[in-house]
Amino acid sequence: MPKTLAVNGEEHVVDVAPDTPLLWVIREQLALTGTKFGCGIAQCGACTIWLDKQAIRSCVTPIAAVGTEAITTIEGLAPGRDVLHPLQQAWIDHQVPQCGYCQSGQLMSAAALLAANPTPSDEDIDQAMQGNICRCGMYQRIRAAIRTAADRIAEASDTSE
Amino acid sequence: MNKWTRRAFIGAGVITGGALLVGVAIRPGRRVDKLAALVEGEDETLVHAFIKIDTDNSVTVIVPHSEMGQGAQTALAQMAADELDADWEQVRFEEAPAAGEYALYTIGRGFLLKDVDVPKVLIPTVDGAMMQLADSMGLQITGGSMSVRVTGMYGMRVAGAATRDLLRRAAAAAWDVPTEDIETNRGELRHAASGRTARYADFAEAAAQLKPTYTPTFKDPSEYTIMGQSVQRLDLPSKVDGSARFALDVRLPDMVYATVAQAPVFAARVASLDTADALAIEGVLGVHRLPETAFDSSIGGFGLGESVAVVASSYWLAKKGLQALDIQWTQTGHESVSSDSLYEQFAETLSTGADVAADTATGDVAEADARAAYRIEATYRVPFLAHTCMEPLNATADVRDGRCELWVGCQNPLGFRHTMAAVLGLEYDDVTVHNQFMGGGFGRKARADWATQAALLAREVGRPVQLIWSREEDVRHDRYRPAGMSQFRAALDDNGALLAWTNRYTNKMDPPDAPLIPYAVPNQDIGSLASPTHVPTGAWRSVDHSQHGFFTESFIDEVAIAAGRDPFEYREQLLSEHPRHLAVLQKAASAAGWGTPMGPGRGRGIALQESFGTIVAQVIEVTVNNGVVAVDRVVAAVDIGYAISPDGTRAQIESGVLYGLTAALYGDITIENGAVKQSNFHDYRAVRMAESPKIETHIINSGHAPGGAGEVGTPAVAPALANAVFDATGVRVRELPLSKAAAMLSDTDAA
Ligand code: FES
Ligand code: FES
Questions:
Q1: Which domain holds residue B41?
Q2: Among A48, A136, A140, A142, which residue has the most ligand 2 atoms within 8 Å of its CB, making it the best to mutate?
Q3: What is the predicted ipTM?
Q4: Helices (H), B60-189
Q5: pLDDT for residue B747 is more than 90
Q6: Nearest residue of A to residue B257, measured between CA atoms
Q7: The domain spanning residue B733 has which CATH number?
Q8: Do residue B345 and residue B326 come from a single domain?
Q9: Ligand 1 pocket, A59 CB below 6 A?
Q10: Interchain pair A17, B317: CB under 8 A
């Protein structure tokens, strides 16, 4: 049965088996390939996207469970063309990615954290990022980059006030 | 740096649109025994490099190595660009296609034919011979930390320096001044006296008319402006916005998806197959039996067995189809094999003592043993390990009309091209490999088994197929880091000085120096015994160093403790003939505050391992609580010769440390009833953010030839960790992973 999805601010009509995980709909039907497959069982976080502003594992979210929520993928994280999300900029400044394969998921988890909690403690960061594996082991840089982004967001809102 | 000889071939020319292209192919080199006769020195390898200067003065460096994630391509581009004196802002790189012209032709002409100009009619013949040669050499492999050490030093820098030299000579001729008076800076030529300047691109055409020199002048390290700088990696912007294209992201018109089930017990074949339920699923297009190919045999000659693939309109439907299959597998005779039975087999092998392949035999171990005051023995063992690259294995193939196109992320594109041609019975020229970014490689992606499956499937279905392995297949059908066992015996005199070191271990692979020790022990007897398993094995980040680091650096710790000495000072004393090792060890110890007291339940361990030309020492601090080991801090000192990009080096050390930590703490592929038991990250754990320690990397630029970086952070982790656990608890862990020792460790907590 055809179904309408709101992805990165655009509507798409898809027609797939209702048990198909959102991950594969995004990657195959919508050709938004920034969201990755790593385990298929909600263990690695590579497939992390947002339903509204909640980070979820799209590999275990059947399309039937998705309603009218706004879906955001890594392609929709930046606020506009040629503007990076503060986390994306911090990721470059700290040279976070190695192979880069896990990083879409890491960024979506981190961005959900900062959206909900702009001043996270180290424990908050650990907890929010615990579902995201990086086999290249870039955790130290990820943590530092989240800190940097949080600081910059705080500075920006200070000066804008 | 001083190995530059006329064994190089340099060619220059103008290509479409007036761009200057300079290519270098160098043969100090080989890696494979049967080619030894063709080359002059030991441990040498073939490399090739190309630089292109476009009319807009931009520089493209074409690098012959794949990007697994280490930033090697950026480091190689830095090396070429610096010797060229390019403007780094204008430098880009491209990965060389898996194509003969990047490797074979120039090498054939330049080296193997000793600079003879080959008549055009003969070129196809030469290329044919060169292809076979490149195939057997595994040319273009990214692994063994070769990229910077070999390609960079002998290829990239030469290409850069030779290009700069051509441009200077061209400018000198045009301006009628001596070449020595032409200076270069950031992509510009300048004659100071007359004040004339020009962009490199302005002399591209003129430079191409000149004969390249075989002896370009290299910069002195003090003149480096790009090497030694922590430049930003050129590939990262695409890795933060989802646009980097990995093999899994390939999208082709009319493409279908497939997934595969392989013989759970390696070497099994399909006994019966019921496809009815699978084919009844809407969207499932077909079920295909895939034969074992000649390329599937693993070390020891055991096969991998057959597989069954389901092709469907989406991966999800292919996966559902696979689950609906009823596959019965043949008996292989390996059904009774377990991890325990393999350890018993290894112990049995070692106890026979027959057919030892010697690594080193110096002095007289028996005589030293006989006069020793005391002797220490210990046996260690390590399990199989999977690679679990973040990106599960996948490949996309289109095989039609006698041609094969393959999209894959692999460590050996040229080798894959040859394998595809051989498996499909095609000509090499009819195969194209499009190499993509790899979501991790770690050694796994040098073997073509999964890509072969994709190609065979694509041929059967006659349209493009993207084959994706589930994580479960990836864990259960790896080429594992071998399980192994290592036995030691040391002989000491009254003062605790080491008189003799004997070591026997199972299944040697590569590199040969992995079990050797840097310590001054007058009598040494180190050797291996073969104990084949049906479990397929292969290169795993740092290869044999990954297990031997644990073996030798745990045992030297035991020896030091038995001698009543501090493990750091004991090592220090044995390194008087190895000043670089000594400096690295001391740096790690001092940076970590070795010797300062630690609280209860806490401990500190040290280890030292040279691999791939880089020397690494690590001090690890742990807290042990109820048998659970928490890793608090890792201090690494690294003599890498010269760090091309210091921050890149640090990132790779961090990565290697974490990879080693996951393995040392949790990594355990076990065999039950002949098959691998684990299947995904829930039972094959990886270290996560909360468990990841603070890592400090101290780089020593000793000025020696650059060593590798991608693998060298891994070997010292497991021994430093086990040594730290001993320091904290008094319990010596001789088997990995550490999680297995939890019960033993919590007993001591209570005591
Ligand atoms: S692919 Fe979804 S959590 Fe791993
Ligand atoms: S950057 Fe490679 S898995 Fe995270």
A1: 6-237
A2: A136
A3: 0.97
A4: 72-84, 104-107, 123-137, 157-175
A5: no
A6: A28
A7: 3.30.365.10
A8: no
A9: yes
A10: yes
